[in-house]
Amino acid sequence: MTASVPFVDLRAMHEEVREEIEAAWRHIVDHSSFVGGPAVSGFETDFAAYCESPYAVGVGSGTDALRIALQAVGVRPGDMVITVPHTFIATIEAIAQAGAVPALVDIDPTSLSMDPAAVREFVERECASGDSVIHRRSGRRVSCLLPVDLYGHPADWQPLLALAREAGLAVVEDACQAHGARYRGRACGTFGDAAAFSFYPGKNLGAMGEAGAIVTARADVAERCRILRDHGQQERYVHVTGDGSNARLDALQAAVLQVKLRHLDRWNERRRAAARHYTERLSPLEVVTPHERDECRHVYHIYAVLVSERDQIRRRLDSRGIGTGIHYPVPLHLQPAYRAMGLPPGSFPVSEQAASRELSLPMFPHLSDDQIERVIAALRWALEEKASPNRRSVSAPEAR
Ligand SMILES: *Cc1c(COP(=O)(O)O)cnc(C)c1O
After folding, report:
1. What's the domain range around 352?
2. Position in ligand 1 atom list of the atom nearest CA 203
3. Which of 70, 236, 239, 388 has the fewest Cβ atoms surrounding its Cβ within 10 A?
């Protein structure tokens, strides 16, 4: 009997903080302050400090954070926002929610995040630059660059920011997977005019429900975010924009986040240790292990390998009780929702390759060495089976 290894298991993490969270919740119930209040402002202060940035604005989800950040940095209805097809759907959804349309550019094959050369090519070949950047074919104003710190590894910020500055584009950072990640010593969440974080339970910093935040160094952007998350209200019943919504962070989630934030660096270190263990043991095998650039601190929200015949390998792992994920199986331009963009297969070859080969191995802070060894043994077996499909299985991982 082989003990299975789940893709994510957060129980041990929550046992560590159960008493602190229960005490914080008791306090909130005693004081009946459920929306806004000291728990929300306390967490906002702490999270801004954690990101080494002046402001954090708590919102209802990472998707809310992206939409509001885009609106707050000046993306207007009808604009174009440059992003990538290889990301979670929310990145592109938020663009539409802000009334804009996505302009997709391909990713870099090593980092799997936005390729600065592809951005340059898009701006130089497809746009006219004057006072603002205009997409020639559609006549739309291109107003913002939206790179993603995918899997917990920072995007290639130096060239991306240089391009944005040169073209006069606002920058929103999708840092929804990158709490605690760093690029040249600087924290993720500080690279654009604003950054969006998600605190979905499975993220490196997760609530016990839905939550998100915008982080920014700009006082005007922070103020607009506070207005937009609360029905466009500047003060009670004074609504200064019709683009607002109810996107507030609730106090019970803020309290969880405030407690868990104190443990985040330690939990990220455990993820990094697990990643080192995987990478060392997987390097002789026929898989491409994730790349951490010298100037970066990867926080391994996802431990993503690339492997051929991915779906078959995944089924084999599943048959051995090893939970895996795919992030993400279909690039956004090939999703039914975006067919109208008219971008056929082949439009973004690197993203399409990544979508067909990416496999996410179990990763969470309390993943044990023993569990990692079981994943590796099962993966080795799955790869050997693939190499010689007609041979009877001789090296199935032993029960442990
Ligand atoms: C999780 C995630 C989001 C959305 O966050 P929610 O809190 O689920 O709305 C956006 N972008 C990326 C890259 C994500 O991983």
Report:
1. 264-387
2. 1
3. 236
